[in-house]
Amino acid sequence: MNNKLGNRIRILRENKGMSQEKMAEKIGLSKSAYGRIETGETNNWVHLIDKICQELSTTPEELFAPDSLVQNNNDNASAVQNHTQHDTHITINQLSDKVIELYEEKIKSLEEKIQELQGNK
């Protein structure tokens, strides 16, 4: 799914006439880190989903819709079509699970750091 999703993000970005460098700057990543999103090399970016969707003028539901087709319309804007509500909910639930997992990992890391700083480790 990462390659398909990355490709969809790339198409949406290109449809807006935005370079990878500009997109990376807008969402607070390096160009190389952003490039890995588009190539599907990383999935450690879900915490940026709102920023990415805002810059691409889309929604997470449209972005993650498994049966969607990203098309270029006459205004060089993106249109994401042909997804079912059921598939969208499944995808959003999977995204939510990943976000929860990332936050749990971060909390654990911060708790360990607190213990270390308190000298309890």
Summed up:
With 121 residues, the chain is mainly alpha-helical.
Radius of gyration: 17 Å
Low-pLDDT runs: 67-90
What best-fitting shape do the alpha-carbon axes yield? elongated
Number of domains: 1
CATH homologous superfamily (4th level) name: lambda repressor-like DNA-binding domains
Total number of beta strands: 2
Average pLDDT number: 76
Helix/strand order, N-terminal first = HHHHHEEH
- Overall helicity: 55-70%
Largest sheet: 2 strands, antiparallel
CATH overall fold name: 434 Repressor (Amino-terminal Domain)
At CATH's second level, what is the architecture? Answer: Orthogonal Bundle
CATH class type: Mainly Alpha
Put simply, the count of helices is: 6
What fraction of residues sit in β-strands?
Answer: 5-15%
Strand order of the largest sheet: 1-2
Features:
121 residues, mainly alpha, two-stranded antiparallel sheet
Note down, in words, how this protein is organized:
It is a single chain. This protein has 121 residues and is mainly alpha-helical. The protein has one domain: lambda repressor-like DNA-binding domains (434 Repressor (Amino-terminal Domain)). The chain has six helices and two strands; from the N terminus they run αααααββα. Strands 1-2 form a two-stranded antiparallel sheet. α1 packs across α3 and α2 crosses α3. It is elongated.
How is the topology of this model organized?
Elements: H1 2-15, H2 20-27, H3 31-39, H4 49-56, H5 60-64, E1 69-72, E2 78-81, H6 85-118
Helix pairs in contact: 1-3, 2-3
